[in-house]
Write a structure and sequence with these properties.
Blueprint (H helix, E strand, L loop, with lengths): L8 H4 L15 H4 L14 E4 L3 H12 L4 E5 L14 E4 L7 H20 L5 E2 L3 E5 L4 H13 L4 E4 H7 L10 E5 L3 E4 H14 L3 E4 L13 E3 L5 E3 L2 E4 L5 H4 L1 H4 L4 E10 L15 E4 L6 E4 L7 E5 L17 H14 L8 E11 L6 E4 L6 E5 L9 H12 L25
Length: 424
Amino acid sequence: MFRRTRVSRRILLSGVAGAIGASIAKTSAAAEFSAAPRVLDGHIDVIVIGAGVFGAWTAWHLLKAGRRVLLLDAWGPAHARASSGGESRMTRTAYGRDEIYTRLAWDSLEDWRWLSSRAGLPIFHPAGVLFFFPRAESYVTQTIDVHRKLHIPIETFERVTLEKRFPQIAWEGIEIALYEPDRGALMARREVQTLVKEFVSAGGEYRQLSVTPPKTSAAFTTVTTTSGESIGAEHFVFACGPWLPKMFPDVLGKKIFPTRQEVFFFAPPGGDARFSPGQLPGWADFNEGDIYYGFPDLEARGFKIAHDRHGPPIDVDTDDRAFSQDALQDVRTFMQRRFPALAQRPLVETRVCQYENSSNGDLLVDRHPEWNNVWLLGAGSGHGFKHGPAVGRYTARRVAGEQVEVEARFGLQSKETRQQRDVH
């Protein structure tokens, strides 16, 4: 059972679900998130390993519920190799028949707005999202049906409207689009780091420590760091992103697949506002399921584009993050077809990150099969970031033993060893 602790009025009145940690850091970068140690002077209810979007929001929700929470990360919140690092992520509610993800994204939106209000610079850019298709296929009709059922606003545009409203896009081969006017872009690194500071200010603790893979034992009572320190708690949440298969090779080594994903930013022509927020929304070309997506020139960082197709396997510990010429040529070829004014523009920034995919794209939120007090959280599968607040709330409630409807699709038993992507 959890030990109850007194929660500050500030936490109770915050009115949001969120998460993040802070740190007794040994470096100047980590010190940005640190506060005087409190939790380690006494009892710890929950240790969350991994200060990415899922781990941070889970830690925040647990703290808000009165738990004493310690958040750990080996390199710091939103570090360069984290799946929650980098510039921007899309928040959309268009998910075809997958109502569960429409709900999670919609339920998270107010949390994103709240956190954005706490940051010095925006975390949420309501630039809108435009998802376009060659025809009114089942994904389109199912998305519309789900949005009507949940009373979530969404608009449909036919080609004549698209050509008029967004002339900077070449619309050949496109018949229909879904437009979400009040959704848009999340600034990923800024989000995680802001939430960490909020978590620490509200009484949580973050430490920059690397944890070793757990060893087989009858009971799980402590985590051990690479420096040899043992830290005990009642419950543990492992939200390690692409490191989960390395942390639990017997359980997840063949069920989570980290893949290399390349992202590119291009310079729009000087003085050309057509590719700026307000004129161009976040966008995704469904492209018969082979999706390309991107953002306008957010915060003057450049026009973003990426191919959503799963890349080759990546070792997140040893592989370099240099972009490939093949991937660069791939997005330039796509831009020649869909954004011709940008196809030969200068490349201003690149990023090689990763997806940590489940077999079909569903998330993972479940107990470890041997240790009842250990939780496995991850498998963002390239679309998980937008769901962070709602996933953190769901995970925290399950860890705390509350009565909650269990989502079978997030269970460990549903994860296969062969990739066959189904969630887009």
